[in-house]
Amino acid sequence: MEKLLTILVAAYNVEKYIEECLASFVGADIAGGIEVLIVNDGSTDHTACIAAKYEEKYPGIFRLVNKENGGHGSTVNYGISEAKGKYFKTVDGDDWVDTAALRELIGFIKVTDADVISTDYRWVDDKTHKKIKEIKNEFAGLRYRKKYIFDSVCSEIYINMHAMAIKTEILQKNKIKLDTHCFYVDAEYVLLPVPYIHTVAFLPKPVYMYRLGLPTQSVALFNMQKNCKDHEKVLRRVVHLYDGKKSTLSRPKKEYLEKSIAKLLTSQIKIYLSYSPGKENKRKIIRMENLVKKKYPQVYFKMTNKAVIMLRRSNYMLYGIASTVLRNTVG
Prior knowledge:
Blueprint: E1 3-11, H1 18-26, E2 34-41, H2 47-57, E3 62-67, H3 72-82, E4 85-92, E5 96-97, H4 99-109, E6 116-125, E7 131-135, E8 148-149, H5 150-153, E9 164-167, H6 168-173, H7 186-191, E10 199-212, H8 221-226, H9 228-245, H10 251-274, H11 279-295, H12 297-300, H13 306-313, H14 319-330
Helix pairs in contact: 1-2, 9-10, 10-14
């Protein structure tokens, strides 16, 4: 390992945003402590040209790789295989980081050996750059910079892609590999390593600036429907992980995965609800619910979303109303 932190920038047709993304790393480099791998995933715009200028100007920080389109998972897979940093973090090419907060993260990496470092992050409006929401690490007695045993705190937290920096060794040694040509693989990225995570530390300042309001985002209503099969695929992959590891996992890790699968299942129900009400989509929800209740009752009862509870209590009679409400809210 030659660097403190490898940052993988997944870039596909982000010419409008990539400059802001890359510029945010420049002032954070402490004594050559970071490497930024820009993986251009077959862009057809000027993304690669803009990235190449940064590689030329800052050769000690940036490295540009051009490859055929393979989806977000393929860029992460490449980054993991090539990473030279002690820790690994991903940033989408249409997002950016807070430079000062990133500098603090790099400074902390010098003095910690926690398997995962979780930082706060911020949702930012695309048009105004104003903060929409700040997502914080919060639980009773939290002490920032302290190294915790993961099992002792995982019932209180959920670490997602925007928050996570993870030891590169964990990803490489355990051959963590995401699905390619598939949306929603962020869930794979944060959950596949869970069996191998033993310690975690927290930092308070938001590092990741997550841009909201882009029409290409997978949470947009049309894209939720278009990529429904991808979400099902990722859900199956995480359930397969749970099935394969549950006999050897500690109880806290097992419950952490159950809680995470419950979140994915709730999202899957929301995707089915996002379509115009129809008998087939209603049947899909009921079939999935019955299967989960029978085979994974621990997951079933961790699905605490109000809309899901309402559907169950009405014996799915309120399906049409729930679908209309969701489409009006998301659409």
